[in-house]
Specification:
This protein has 336 residues and is mostly helical. The protein has helices at residues 3-14, 40-46, 48-66, 94-100, 103-123, 125-136, 140-151, 158-169, 174-181, 193-220, 225-233, 238-249, 251-263, 270-276, 282-285, 288-298, 302-330, and strands spanning 77-78, 89-90.
């Protein structure tokens, strides 16, 4: 082989393809960009419409959720109407010790836990059941009618719902008329403490279950249809398909909503309780939110009410963190 051919082969093997930068002592190799990393200016210029849409919700959270957190300082300071909004005198843990030693508060707290637990027990699984039943309906017209009927109560204000409940359950209402027609005696549902939880939970189920099915119906559309076909080939009936295919398919949605509901466990509906209860039903109907209303706004004891509200918020935070941790470890799905 001649020297010219050897030199040509060497150049052919060492010459890089066109467009490839070969590092040299004078010019080091360019630093590769990290995959998926976009400059914030480029992202803002590209998605400015989305950021503009998010601006109003973010401002709402800042003004009405985060800024008011500074008001929690009056749980440790004596607040007088007309004085400083951050309190006039540092009192430390005085107000926290007051409600911790107050038996009335613990009765109210127990009512809140029981009422919140009953609401979660009935209002969380029933939308799942209704969504599964609606998913089995094959006639679209009938399905739309059922959905419209079940969604309608959500769009009624709490005042209207409570007014309907009072009309139905009054001594001369429809329910008592049916009871008397069957030979029974009229029951004062709204004046007996033992009936308050049943009335509240029943009205809450009627008002919220239909609306709660929307997310589950949307989640059901994402379940792979081939899984149902494979289950049918294996001989699975409708119940087994629901248990082994449908429920695992919507499990992330179920877990997310369950964690959110647990976080709001103690935030039992203030408006409905306030409109439904009366001094005769305080024993079972008085909850933390209505107690705060009477103590804080009616009695002008803002520092004491703030201390109770702070305690309630801390418990809610602990519950949602615990539920998220347990869900991530046991089920493998969580909010974060």
């Amino acid at each position: 082989m001649s020297a010219a051919h050897a030199t040509g082969d060497a150049l052919a093997t060492t010459t890089p393809p066109e467009g490839v930068v070969v590092p040299s002592p004078e010019r080091p190799a360019p630093r590769p960009r990290r995959a998926g990393k976009v400059n914030w200016r480029v992202a803002l210029r590209r998605d400015w419409v989305l950021y503009a849409m998010a601006l109003v919700p973010v401002l709402f959270l800042l003004v009405f959720r985060y800024v008011p957190m500074f008001g929690n300082i009056i749980a440790f300071r004596r607040f007088r109407p007309g004085g400083s909004i951050f309190g006039d005198e540092w009192v430390g843990m005085r107000y926290i010790q007051l409600f911790l030693n107050d038996p009335n508060f613990w009765n109210v707290f127990a009512n809140t836990v029981i009422l919140g637990g009953l609401t979660l027990l009935f209002c969380f699984p029933l939308p799942i059941v209704l969504a599964l039943l609606l998913n089995e309906v094959r006639k679209s017209a009938f399905k739309r009618v059922i959905q419209s009927i079940s969604y309608l109560p959500h769009f009624l204000s709490v005042v209207i719902v409570v007014g309907m409940v009072m009309q139905l359950l009054s001594l001369q209402g429809t329910v008592n008329q049916v009871i008397e027609a069957m030979g029974g005696e009229a029951i004062p549902f709204l004046q007996r403490a033992e009936w308050f939880r049943t009335v509240y939970v029943g009205s809450e189920v009627w008002q919220t279950v239909g609306w709660g099915t929307i997310l589950y119906l949307a989640a059901l559309t994402t379940v792979d249809a081939s899984l149902y076909e494979a289950a049918r080939i294996d001989g699975a009936g409708r119940l087994r398909q629901t248990w082994h295919v449908t429920l695992p398919g919507i499990r992330p949605t179920m877990i997310t909503l369950l964690i959110l509901n647990i976080g709001l466990f103690l935030n039992v509906g203030f408006e409905k309780v306030l409109l439904l209860y009366n001094p005769l039903t305080y024993a079972t109907g008085d909850v933390v939110s209505t107690y705060l209303y009477r103590v804080g706004l009616v009695s002008n004891n803002f520092s004491y009410a703030t201390a109770i509200g702070l305690f309630q918020a801390i418990i809610g935070l602990v519950m949602i963190l615990s539920a998220n941790f347990v869900s991530r470890r046991v089920v493998g799905a969580s909010l974060w």
